[in-house]
Structures are given as C-alpha cells and as structure tokens.
Amino acid sequence: MNIGRLNTSGDARMWWKKVWKLTGKKKPSINLSEQGSDSKLEDSDAANMINTFFADLTNDFPEIQSRWSLYGHSDVLPTVTPESVAKKLLSIQSRKAPGPNDPYLKIIKMFAHSFAIPLANIFNASFGQKVFPKLWKEFRLAPIPKVEPCTNLDEIRPIALTSTISKIQESYVVDWMYDDIESKICKEQYGGVPRSSAVLALVHLLHKWNKALDLSQRGGHHVSLCESKGEGNVSASIGSPTMHVRSESRVVLQTAQGILKGAQNAARIRVMFDTGSHKSFVTSKVVRAAGLPVKGKNGEEAVTIEAYCVETIAQVRNEHIELRKGEYPHLRGLWFSDVCKSSEVFDIDILVGSDFLWCFQSGTIVRGRAHEPVAVETTLGWVR
User: Fold this and answer.
1) By CB neighbour count within 10 A (0-12 exposed, 13-18 middle, 19+ buried), where does 104 fall?
2) Are strands 139-145 and 345-348 parallel, antiparallel or unpaired?
3) Helix-strand-coil percent breakdown of the chain, rounded to 5?
4) What backbone torsions phi and psi does residue 202 show, to the nearest 5 degrees?
5) How far apart are CA 384 and CA 377, in angstroms?
6) N or C, fewer C-beta in 10 Å, the chain?
7) Across the chain, what does the average pLDDT equal?
8) For 319-333, b where at least 16 C-beta lie within 10 A, e where not — what string?
9) Which residues partner with 266 through β-bridges?
10) Distance, CA of 87 to CA of 97 (rounded, Å)
11) Per-residue pLDDT for 62 more than 70?
C-alpha cells in the first residue's frame, strides 16, 4: 500500500474514504423489498418505510404533560450566565457530527464567547417561560445496519443525532437536579455520578471483600503479588492487601516446627507447606536479619530460601493429629514435627510454596486407606 496516497491533511473522513477505496471495502448497505417481492425498493421508498417503522415504535408511549411540576428546595431556578455557557461550548468535541439545524461544531467552539451571550438569554427565557424550543427537539435519525447484507427492518439500529445546543441546555437541568439529590445518593453508587468511574467501583468492591473476609482470628492466604527484586534471602515487601479465604471442610494442613536463626538470636517458628502457592512467604515479625537459614528441629541440614515478607500469612486450625495417630496403624511410630496440645488455632510464620517445597520434602510418603491422613517426610520432620 502506498502510504503517500493517503495524505489527506488531517481530514479523518477523507482518510477513511481512501482506505476503504484501497481495500475495496464498502459501507454496509440496506436492501429492503416489499413483502412478498424480491425487487429492491427505491431509496425514497426505503426511507419512508424505515421512518414509518421507527415512528410506529412510539405509538404506545404516553403523551408528555405540558404542565410543569416543582421539585427541589426552591421554585426559582438559578440564572444561566454567559461565562458558564462559554465554558460548556469550549468543551464540545468538534469532531463529532452536529445535530439538525446546528452550525458546524468547529464554528461553535471557535466563536464560543460570541455565542455564549445570546444562548444564555435563550436558556433563561426558556426556563422562565417553561417552554423548550421546538427546533431543538428535532433530531436526525441515521439507520445503521446491524448485519451485512441488511434485508429486514429488525436488522437496523436507529442512531439519533440531536441538537448540540439542546444538550447544553439539558446539562444545566442535570446539574441543578444533582445538587438537590447529591446528599441522598448512596455512597456506594458510582454510575452517573460526577468524578466517579467503574475503576472506583471495583476498588470499593475489593475493599469490601477484603474487610469481610479478613479473618483476623482465623487466617488465610494472600491472593495477588507484584514481584520486586529483593536482596539476601528475603525479597522486598510487596504492596498488595491481604485477602483471606477459608473453607468449612476440615482439612489437615502440612505444618511443621523449626528453628529460625538470625544474625544474633533464634526463634521457634511454624512452617506450612503449600503446593498451591507459587511463592514462599515469611512474616515481618520474624524477619530480623538478611540471612534466614531454616534448620531442622533435630539439628540436621539447613535450607536457605527466598521469601516475600508480609504482615500475616495464615492462622490454621489445630486438628491434633498427634493425639489421634494411634487410630491409624500406618501413622504409628512416626514423629510429627508440629505438636501443639495447648492451642486450637496457631499462626503460620513461614509458608513454603512450590518454588522451594521440594527442598524440604524427601519424597517418602506413607499412605493408609482412602480418606485417612497421609504423612509426608520433610527435613523438619513428618507432616500430615
């Protein structure tokens, strides 16, 4: 394609016209015919048929009452100033198509301050006399085909081009009505509210989910991450809020106890192995030094991991499997790393995800019958 041939001096309509000509593309056409006949209607007959079809759609609409009803705190409307009209005229998108009886939008925008004074007088007179100019009620209806080829009236979408000036007058009514109802609008309403958007609605919804599911007493998992390069064995803290999830079913999670050794001191920590987590995590309260070797409870080999530092990881329910392992012959004689008889719920300090999970697991698994606990051997001891 010769790009030089598309030079149209910034005229978008001419640019697309040349593109369609070069590519052989044509505008969708409307091919209507009389009922029971295959002959195509003339353009004037097709236009009359389309006009009658769309006009009949409004036959059942109730007639608009001519009398006005008073709403709000006052029966006196504010005065429209030329300055406010000029501001609205300057915000017009001049590339859009004008309505019927409107000058070109570029001219309106170019001479906005000249148009502002007479338009402000017309607006004030219209509101004062409670009469909307009939000329501004007219609109140009453009039938747009939904499919190609279009052979049925039901396959046409009506696009109405209304007067740009009438839209500006209507915007004053919207502004005044909003001033009256703003205090009564629910704070969770985002549609049709100025300075609001679907993004704010989504953020508010996620915040409510976080608040409702924040299991400060039950625990859970982080949902999303934004990776950042860290130093040493712990990555930089992430800026994602904590969202917790839980289940009503009773599942024994793979937890173990270990010794966390920092630069100067050591602390007993609880570790959870989670194959569903792509990354590993450590809570900020146990981060004291840059290097974090995790040593087995029996003093065996040390395993170095890199983990994301977060405020909380999870709280899990204590299923007391060490008290019940005598009920399962295949678990007898196994030393379970995580034994806690005093607490029903305990915090998880480190979550080992699938990135470092196999550094801890030896591959030895002891199974019983279906629906019975499964024991997995790790460098920290046996876990369920």
Assistant:
1) exposed
2) unpaired
3) 30, 20, 50
4) -65, -40
5) 9
6) N
7) 73
8) bebbeebeebeebee
9) 261
10) 20
11) yes
CB neighbours of 335 closer than 8 A, spacing ≥ 6?
A: 381, 382
* Boundaries of every domain in the chain: 43-57+76-182, 254-295+302-383
Cis check for the bond before 194: say yes or no (omega within 30 of 0). Answer: no
pLDDT-above-90 percentage for the chain: 11
d(CA 332, CA 319): 17
Interior angle at CA 200, CA 196 and CA 204, nearest 5: 130
**Alpha helix ranges (H) inside 57-185:** 82-90, 105-110, 112-129, 164-181
Tell me the pLDDT band of 329, cut-offs 50, 70 and 90. Answer: confident
pLDDT at residue 341, rounded to an integer: 66
Distances (CA, A) of 192 to 178, 182, 188, 227: 10, 11, 12, 36
101: left (phi over 0), alpha (psi -120 to 50) or beta: left
Concatenate the DSSP letters of all residues of 351-366 into one string.
EE-TTTGGGTEEEEEE
Contact 248, 325 (CB under 8 A): no
DSSP code at position 79: P
Q: Spell out the long-range contacts of 182-185 with Cβ–Cβ below 8 A and sequence spacing 24 or more.
A: none
| Residues 359 and 305: beta-carbon distance below 8 Å | yes
- How far apart, in whole angstroms, are the C-alpha atoms of residue 215 and residue 243? 8
Q: Convert the pLDDT of each residue in 10-53 to its tens digit.
A: 677 777 778 877 777 766 677 787 776 777 788 888 888 888 88
